[in-house]
Design goal:
CATH architecture of the largest domain: 3-Layer(bba) Sandwich
Number of helices: 15
Helix content: 25-40%
Oligomer: single chain
Number of domains: 3
Bound molecules: flavin-adenine dinucleotide
Number of strands: 20
Shape: globular
CATH class of the largest domain: Alpha Beta
Distance between the termini: 6 Å
Length: 457
């Protein structure tokens, strides 16, 4: 029997992680990526001044075991700068505070910090304890039971005050999930908070020390090609050709037709829908893909003529145009010698902002930022970038968890990967890597049993 030939469509983290697993098991892998650069939502590039631009600030946590292991494998694990682990909350009016992680065993490392957080009344702080206790003790099964609840309703039902929701949960949830507590499913929030409470290390955030492409994606891609895999960019797959319960071939936008023994679609959920023929949607597996609603995100980078903050960590701010941001001039090595601040903001959900001009968005961000850090009001923005991603995520509404598709499709030789596919993580880089590895596992199982993926001889 010849080596199995696999085509992976999509060169984001899910597709690349899948490629590594398959190559390690001796399969013949080609990755087709539509864009000129790899990385998908975790891509970065350089502007004409040589400065790094990306879709938005990306942070990792020590809980990203699959991503971190992958980076270790390709020799890129040293490219992460880890911060101290405090939660910086900045409010309008120039009030910056932090929930200081105490040197106590988990979960007291966080709870002691919360109890000392004076921006909230003692009553507000104490009102969170029943919710935190339940989250801490929760199992996967228990968390899934609350998928139909919004996190706000769930937290309120456990005694959390409206103030605690607005001033603690909302900024945390918006910063992590890009959706507020009134709309987000409880399951995914509980998942993140459970691991944060369980593990003292998990509150430490890591930043990629430079461009995502050079420091994370290029080493992964280099490992793939050095191990015999093929990666082709600017290959826009337009559709899959269906045969009897299997994919026969795929067509590129150029009209070229390519075939393999098996296919992995590692593209965003809205793109996979475009590649399938109409009758595929008769099957509930594919029909459910139409339930995913896209959530737009805008990444804004402002270069200031002076230092506007010395905080070298992620900052969360409720009730502003942005929710999460960081002054990367205090974090990324190559920027540390610069005299001014470089602040990367994430604006989400950003549907209402997509149609505004870049200039207007920059002005709104600068105005809100000046309310939080008054020194920024007088600072001049010497350069800015605005990157819109209209379909950055799916909205993690109550009830969506059940529709995340498993990596194995009803077709014998088609597998799905991507942060939206079923895995225990909310959509994020760790979920993308895990999904790619799960897709590879399903495909390898099918190859080993010989029952599903047909031989090419
Ligand atoms: C602004 C922003 C901030 C974020 N911040 C964080 C963070 O702090 N921490 C974190 O963990 N995660 C973060 N994420 C999420 C993270 O980037 C994604 O979850 C992850 O990168 C998704 O990887 P993926 O491989 O599943 O999908 P994608 O990255 O979307 O990859 C899919 C790939 O398929 C390609 N493709 C699409 N259509 C075709 C086609 N027809 N033919 C060929 N190729 C095709 C695309 O070009 C893309 O390269 C953020 C995302 C955004 C947008």
């Amino acid at each position: 029997m010849k080596t199995k030939r696999v085509i992976i469509v999509g060169g984001g983290l899910a597709g690349l992680a899948c490629a590594i697993e398959l190559i390690d098991h001796g399969l013949d892998v080609t990755v087709l990526e539509s864009s000129p650069i790899l990385g998908g939502k975790a891509a970065s590039w350089h502007d004409e001044d040589g400065d790094i631009v990306d879709l938005g600030l990306h942070v990792v946590t020590p809980l990203y075991e699959h991503l971190l292991e992958l980076l270790r494998k390709v020799g890129a694990h040293e490219n992460i700068v880890w911060r101290d682990g405090n939660y910086y909350l900045a409010l309008r009016g120039g009030k910056v505070d932090s929930i200081r992680i105490a040197s106590l065993p988990a979960p007291m490392h966080f709870l002691a910090g919360l109890l000392r957080y004076r921006k909230l009344s003692l009553l507000d702080r104490l009102s969170g304890l029943p919710a935190f206790a339940e989250i801490l003790l929760s199992t996967d099964r228990h968390r899934r039971k609350f998928d139909l609840w919004t996190f706000r309703d769930w937290a309120r039902s456990r005694g959390a005050t409206e103030n605690l929701v607005a001033h603690l949960f909302d900024p945390m949830v918006e910063g992590l999930m890009f959706l507020d507590c009134h709309h987000v499913s409880t399951t995914n929030v509980m998942f993140d908070l459970h691991y944060m409470l369980l593990n003292k290390e998990s509150s430490r955030l890591g930043f990629i020390d430079g461009g995502l492409n050079e420091k994370m994606i290029a080493p992964i891609a280099g490992h793939i090609t050095a191990s015999g895999g093929v990666i082709l960019t600017e290959q826009n797959v337009s559709r899959f050709r269906f045969g009897r319960n299997r994919i026969e071939a795929l067509e590129l936008a150029t009209g070229e037709v390519l075939s393999a023994d098996a296919y992995v679609a590692a593209v965003p959920v809205h793109r996979i829908q475009e590649m399938l023929p109409d009758d595929a949607f008769d099957d509930p597996y594919f029909a459910n893909l139409c339930r995913f609603e896209p959530a737009p995100v805008i990444g804004v980078q402002l270069w200031f003529d002076r230092k506007v903050t010395d905080i070298s960590d992620l900052i969360l701010t409720p009730k502003c145009i942005f929710n999460a941001y960081a002054d990367v001039s205090n974090i990324i090595s190559e920027y540390r010698s610069r005299s001014g601040s470089i602040v990367h903001f994430v604006l989400a959900p950003a549907g209402h902002l997509l149609a505004l001009s870049d200039r207007r968005i920059v002005r709104l961000v600068h105005e809100d930022f000046g309310d939080v850090f008054p020194v920024a009001r007088d600072a001049r923005v010497v350069k800015s970038t605005v990157v819109r991603t209209p379909k950055a995520f799916y909205r993690q509404y109550p009830g969506m968890e059940q529709y995340r598709p498993p990596q194995r499709t009803p077709l014998d030789n088609l597998f799905l990967a991507g942060d939206f596919t079923r895995n225990k993580y909310p959509p994020c880089m760790e979920g993308a890597v895990k999904s790619g590895q799960l897709a590879a596992e399903c495909l390898l199982k099918a190859v080993q049993t010989g029952s599903d993926v047909p031989t090419d001889q």
